[in-house]
Amino acid sequence: MTRFQRFATVLLGLVTTPAAANGFDMDVPTLVEQAADAGIDHRYTGPWEYFVGGGAAAFDCNGDRLPDLAVAGGTEPAAIFVNRSATAGKLRFEEKADAIPEPVRERVTGFYPLDIDNDGVRDLVALRVGENVILKGGPDCTFEDASRAFAFDGGRAWTTAFAATFEPDLAFPSLAFGNYVDRSAPGSPWGTCHDNVLIRPSGTEGPDYSEQTVLTPGYCALSMLFTDWNRSGEPALRITNDRQYYREGEEQLWRVSPGRPPRPYRSSDGWRRVQIWGMGIAEADLDADGYPEYALTSMGDTKLQTLDDEADHDRPVYRDIAYDRNATAHRPYAGDDLKPSTGWHAEFSDFNNDGRLDLFIAKGNVEQMPDFAAYDPDNLLLGRYDGTFDEAGEAAGIALPRRGRGAAVADFNMDGMLDLAVVNRGEPLSLFRNTGGETASGTRPMGNWLQIELSQKGANRNAVGATILVKSGNETRTRKIQIGGGHASGSAGFVHVGTGVAERAEIRIQWPDGEWSAPFRVFANNFVVIEKGADEAMYWYPPGE
Amino acid sequence: MVKRFSVVLVCSLITSTTAAGEPAWTERAILEHVDQEKLSGALSSEALHDLIAQGEVLFSAKFTDLDGAGRPMATQAIIPTKRKRPTDKEFHRTAGLDANSCASCHNQPVIGGAGDFTVNVFVSEGFANADFDTTDPQFSNERNTNHLMGAGLVELLAREMTADLHAIRRDALRKARANGEPVSARLVTKGVDFGALTAMPDGIVDLEEINGVDTDLVIRPFSQKGVMTSLRQFTVNAMNHHHGMQAAERFGARWTGEDDFDADGNPVELTEGDISALVAWQATLPPPKVSEPADSAWKEAAATGSILFDEIGCANCHRRALPLKSLVFADPGPLDAAGTLRQGEVAGISYDLGLLDWAAALEKDEDGNYLVPLFGDLKRYVMADRQVAALSNELLGQRFVERNVFQTTELWGVGSSAPYGHRGDFTTLDGIIRAHGGDARAARDAYLERADGERSALIAFLKTLEIKE
User: Fold this and answer.
1) How many domains are there within chain A?
2) How many structural domains does chain B have?
3) Which of A87, A91, A254, A402 has its CA 20 to 30 A from that of B227?
4) pLDDT in the model for residue B172
5) Phi and psi dihedrals of B168, rounded to 5?
6) Distance between terminal CA atoms of chain A?
7) Cβ-nearest to B399 among A27, A353, A504
8) Does B178 map to a domain?
9) What is the ipTM of this complex?
10) Are residues B39 and B84 in the same domain?
11) Same structural domain for residues A440 and A456?
12) Could you tell me what percent of chain A has a pLDDT over 70?
């Protein structure tokens, strides 16, 4: 026995392992609801037309890079809340009462932010029951109705979905609007889904959206997303539809080839008929193979689709892996109500910064549907090391008795941890501050993170359509810059990437024109700003840092 | 001199079986783990010395399979990474395991000291794409073993310098935001100039002119490249790399989803407390000293060499001392990232290095700062050029640092830590001085221009920078 071993005999103490206060291996983020304290009192209300919708947009509207909030109100006025949160402090917002022109505030179902006219300021597309409106962003979170200036006819449909993409050789984005039930059609609402539209821009001086292409048939779209499903560099339009009202409808994927009329993929192309109460789409490349997976919310099972082995470059054959991944989220995880859930907004994000994507799903009964759960808390499915998910909504603190609809996931107080705003039907907006990983005695810091902002000159300032690869060790994490998806809710700004225990990473960008950047070397726990053509990435620091 | 072992306590409790119920002839090296939950707040001298003793046990331990040595299904990568297939050999000179014990390399002239060429290690920045079963040296850089003496003081200096740089950045940003105009600021801390930054009114910082430090302005004082933030981070890395002893704070289920990430059958190999003990032992190692030779000729030559050291520019980078405000060492420290235990994750401890006997010998400046005689500046430089390229012999950059760039080697202890150079390629001090190129070329040339006697005097001086046995 060595003297060291002899000494070791007197060492006291028990083997300890890291705190796991809640039965989870990984960190469970502590999400503290503080909307009222933060200065937000907002509801999404209204009759049948507002059973759906209820969106929110998180984006910077005053140039300080902090995400502000635009929130639909249905029959209540939509509102802009300017972010006044202190860095790493409590969340605080100020409503900017006159931000949106008065006539536009009413009947809003959702918002999507994007810079349409390439002036460096994000504009806002307001989806409405009735005329949709393009709101041109101005200084200090002011917006003006630019529909006329952009020759945009907002129509009269009941609009519930939106997506945008920048097509090659077009100076401005192409806009897709998804519509719900045509209330004026005979026999409405059953089998009377409104067509959807794709509007390509013309003109070079300013956007001209006077020419619309009808996407028919429409099957009561509740979410749509331009997605490069086959790595062709040519995004197709994925639409999720509500079987509640269509007849013989299905989920849809439209080819949108530049300069050509859109065309839906059909069964002869390998497209398999899926009929769900489609409410929301979230995209993520969960296995970093370049081919995205899609979460589709519905009543009952959530779908998680991945390309099947039978798929080919132009054969979009998908299979559902939600059950295998423990991601069906088909009924409430808390309470005694065992009836099926009703899912709405879906979004993949890394809430605990462990480097694995989590899936948030807003849940809530349509109104009083007796065959579906009345108490139906939102889901926080934490991604596990093996690719499956664990439900942590209750442990995280988001299991509120509210009827969720749209949502916005963003780091509102710039502390590196994603916060969450959930729009609730008939009930107050929930604003959750992420305060860190739950422990028996409070919270602790979670994993490392990066937040990345892209920019380029000319058209498409915010690089919509770009792919971001973040590589640490053997792991590559992928993000896309997209406008669309979710449920009537879109966000824009810093793209958040949890990096787990990696303290540094190499970032590569595939810009929307297909050009790959050189690798940018960055340290974790920083806000990174990358401009196309730059040799080095830059760091941005929030106020007070 | 405080004993590093509590001899009385040890002797009084030696029994024929261990506290863990193991027989006296056990092949386990770790009989009891250190419990982090029992460590909190400012440690008393007694508690500190207990923790140091536990750390020395671990540093000197020859880990066995029973402790968790080996990592059949994990690579040496600092980010937990699975092997593609189990390794067929436990030990492996390049990919590791390459040592049975920390002390098997860090042992010259004392435990915690440096190592000969025979104990060079291989750092594998190219791990991302390499199959870790390979023995091909193209996937690694070979490095000589550094000594750890005075390491706590080095980390404290780096923390203070980082705080200074961050304060400069914060102040520049505040002014730029307030005035709506770009603000440039020199990044100078403790007299060391790390270039400049420019803060923009919108909160973006232009880092094009920074020099010798990472872009996040964190001084990482450890390793030949200056890429490791703390003793704690380095310890967690090294324990996995060299011994296959995986620390729970990085390889545990929290980050990997598995209790036994390396699949060697040992779910708990090193606790947070074990790492804290190892950190305490390393952080409290006495710093090397400038010795006074008994030989009068050596003494006289060393005095001449000391003057020459300054005259020819050695001291521009190998600064004789850097001022340190506080000797209080917090563990975990303020700068580590996830995967190394951080403040806010545990109660944390702090200990005053002033409790150690050796601290009394630290000189102070007129402002009351402790003068840490490290003969370094914790800054990175280009160390090779077209004519003098011997130190540009690595195949790979490491952790964003180019292959010919290294952090200034602290010369304290250089008289006891041959061979020299990042790979241990140089058997003499004269040899390594002659190999200085790039940013150090002027000093090297000045050395060569001196007469033989003066060069010999400089060596005489460097030989007085000893690690005491």
Assistant:
1) 2
2) 3
3) A87
4) 98
5) -60, -45
6) 54
7) A504
8) yes
9) 0.93
10) yes
11) no
12) 96
The arithmetic mean of pLDDT across residues B200-212, rounded, is: 96
User: Which pLDDT tens digit goes with each residue over A116-151?
Assistant: 999 999 999 999 999 999 999 999 999 999 999 999
Average pLDDT over residues B182-201: 98
The domain that holds A366 is classified in CATH as 2.130.10.10
pLDDT bucket at B93, cuts 50 / 70 / 90:
confident
- Supply angle C-alpha B368, B374, B379, rounded to 5: 105
Residues with Cβ within 8 Å of residue A493, at least 6 apart in sequence: A58, A59, A60, A65, A67, A410, A453
**pLDDT value at position A509?**
98
Query: Are the beta carbons of A229 and A316 closer than 8 angstroms?
Result: yes
Residue A75 one-letter amino acid: T
Integer Cα distance of B226 and B219 in angstroms? 8
Task: Decide if A144 is inside a domain.
Answer: no
Residue A411: closest CA among A328, A302, A496: A496
Question: E-assigned strands of A53-153?
Answer: 56-59, 68-71, 79-83, 93-95, 108-114, 123-128, 133-137, 143-145
Distances (CA, A) of B64 to B73, B105, B197, B246: 17, 17, 50, 13
Interface test with A, best of B3, B255, B261 (most A CBs within 10 A): B255
Which pTM does this prediction carry? 0.94
pLDDT band at A473 (very low <50, low <70, confident <90, very high): confident
Query: For residue range B421-468, what is the model confidence (pLDDT) as tens digits?
Result: 999 999 999 999 999 999 999 999 999 999 999 999 999 999 999 998
At A21 the pLDDT is: 56
Same domain, B127 and B160: no
Tell me: pLDDT of A304 over 70: yes
Q: Is the pLDDT of residue B2 over 80?
A: no
Residue of higher predicted confidence among A17 and B324: B324
pLDDT tens profile A320-343: 999 999 999 999 999 999 999 999
Mean per-residue pLDDT for A399-408? 97
A162-194 b/e (C-beta count within 10 Å ≥ 16 → b): bbbbbbeebbbbbbbbbbbbbeeeeeebebbbb
Residue B102 — φ and ψ, nearest 5°? -60, -40
The DSSP output letter for B343 is: B
Name the 3-class secondary structure at B346. Answer: strand
CATH number at residue A510: 2.60.40.1110
Residues A357 and A406 in one domain: yes
Minimal-distance CA residue of chain A relative to B346: A444
Domain that holds residue A365: 29-139+158-444
**CB contact (8 A) between residue A473 and residue B128:** yes
Domain boundary among A426, A444, A462: A444
Q: Say which range, A137-146, A160-169, A234-243, B22-31, has the weakest mean pLDDT.
A: B22-31
Closest-CA residue to A80 (of A49, A46, A40, A50): A40
What is the three-class DSSP state of B440? helix
Q: For B56, which residue in chain A has the nearest alpha carbon?
A: A4
A109 and A251 both lie in a single domain? yes
Residues B191 and B309 reside in one and the same domain: no
CB contact under 8 A, A354 and B256: no
Is B50 in the same domain as B112? yes
Structure tokens at B2: 């405080």
Would you say residue B154 has pLDDT above 70? yes
User: Which domain range does residue B32 map to?
Assistant: 14-64+75-146+226-283
Of A475, A501, A504, the CB nearest to B338: A501
B434 and B298 in a common domain: yes
CA distance B450 to B456: 10
Size of interface A-B (CB pairs under 8 A): 187
Tell me if B10 and A6 make a contact (CB, 8 A cut-off).
Answer: yes
More confident of the two residues B94 and B385 = B385
Task: Kindly report the CATH number assigned to the domain that includes residue B452.
Answer: 1.10.760.10
Residue contact B10–A3, C-beta within 8 A = yes
